[in-house]
Amino acid sequence: xxxxxxxxxxxDDLAHRTVNGxxxxxxxxxxxxxxxxxxxxxxxxxxLGAFPPPALSLxxxxxxxxxxxxxxxxxxxxxxxxxxxxxxxxxxxxAAVALDRMPNRYAQLLISLFLSPLIVPGVVIGFAxxxxxxxxxxxSTFLRLxxxxxxxxxxxxxxxxxxxxxxxxxxxxxxxxxxxxxxTKAFWTxxxxxxxxxxxxxxxxxxxxxxxDVAVSIFLSDPDRYTLPVALVSMLHAxxxxxxxxxxxxxxxxxxxLMLVLDWLAGLxxxxxxxxxxx
Length: 279
Prior knowledge:
mainly alpha
């Protein structure tokens, strides 16, 4: 083996080990804080002490379920996430159907516009909406939050529905119409059933991202109407205790559970990866 080949092999081995090391470090940085949060949520101590905790307890979970301030935030978050999922999915389905039937050059332009909230920082969206709502006179905090959450989750809904529609053969719709079905009936009897996986995936994405949002919600909440993540941020400044860790674990568990449902329904690789469904 020549020296050149030896040097090239050594460089390849070094690059391979470096990449593996970076992957390991990234996974460690992602999982270690979650593991510590999980451990802290069962800590029996009255204070944040050294890791790991010497004794375990469910006291922080019990405190969460008996805290009216946090439960009020939880109620708002669940209501908001549910309505957001319905509204964002309905709008995403309508827009995706229209885009799917539109000439490609116009459709791509509108898709870029609809997906633009994904690249705008949440702080910017929250501050802009705060000013906008004040100017047009919307005073209801819940309506403000709902409009904001629909805006930031709409891209996920339209993305998944478009992916679902991309896997439906047009010939199926044409056959239905040739047999006498109207365009509306062909949609509900052919398109909608075949796209239901993408529609469900969009609803789950919208629910999860609405439930977890902080950056936008913190601008639009008030002392009487706030989401659970905003309540947690407030507790960090006012009255820090390990109830925050317990709530974080519950939110994390709910998000993971919904993602598992999404993976079971559609497959996460197809939702966020390949770009279309094989329906």
